[in-house]
Amino acid sequence: MLATILWFILVGAVIGAVARLIVPGRNPIGILLTVLVGIAGALLGGVVADALGAGTLVALVFAVIIAALGVAALTAFQARGGSGGRGWRRTGRGTY
């Protein structure tokens, strides 16, 4: 069980790092947050697959898919502003 959790953590970290490397241009989130979201997604995917009674290989594939979707969703959310367009914004007149 512990070895499986460690594998999911490793897979999530790799997915997060690879996602950080393949996104072109300036990334709106840091590498640490990207890796942490990858790890969380992989753990979530592994837990869900285990709850469904899937085998080890299916759980690994499910963990990779959930981790990649989590990193992609976070990157897209941060790229469009993160707070839905609210918050402090420069108006161009020297005021905020």
| Separation, N- and C-terminal Cα atoms | 52 Å
Query: What summary fits the major beta sheet?
Result: none
How many strands?
A: 0
The geometry reads as elongated
**SSE string, helix = H, strand = E?**
HHH
Class based on secondary structure composition and strand pairing:
mainly alpha
Task: Compute the average pLDDT.
Answer: 78
How many helices? The count is 3
Helix content: 55-70%
Family: Belongs to the UPF0410 family.
Transmembrane segments: 6-23, 30-49, 55-77
Organism: Actinomadura namibiensis
Membrane topology: Multi-pass membrane protein
Structural account:
The chain is mostly helical. The chain has a domain at 32-77. The protein has helices at 2-22, 31-51, 56-79. 25% of the residues are buried. The model is unreliable at 84-88 (pLDDT under 50).
Characteristic terms for this protein:
3 helices, mainly alpha, 96 residues
Summarize it:
The chain is mainly alpha-helical and 96 residues long. It has helices spanning 2-22, 31-51, 56-79.
What are the SSEs and their pairings?
Blueprint: H1 2-22, H2 31-51, H3 56-79
